[in-house]
Description:
By secondary structure, the protein is mainly alpha-helical. It has helices spanning 2-27, 32-60, 63-90, 96-105.
Amino acid sequence: FLLVVRLLQGIILGGEYSTNLVYLCESSEQRKYFWGSLASCSGSFGILLASAFASLFFTIFCPAFMTHYGWRIAFLLSIPLGLLTYFIRRNLTETYDTKHAVNENK
């Protein structure tokens, strides 16, 4: 089950990365490439944050606890972040470029 969840997470991340990059570049009027680069920076920051949490957990908890239950803590901590991301994505508006392209095709 854990392998399937991690595989699904990787597929979702691959789809989200490119759409976030395009959205950030299209929605900014100035410094487009700076805002677009935040997508790459946030991915690296996420890896750094996950590594910090893993180090903290292995420092606090014994190896037996981490093997049996500790890995579930990371999944539980990611639920609020996932919900926040979902609500942010639901309330985003279309960019000017996308609206313009849709209107041209009509």
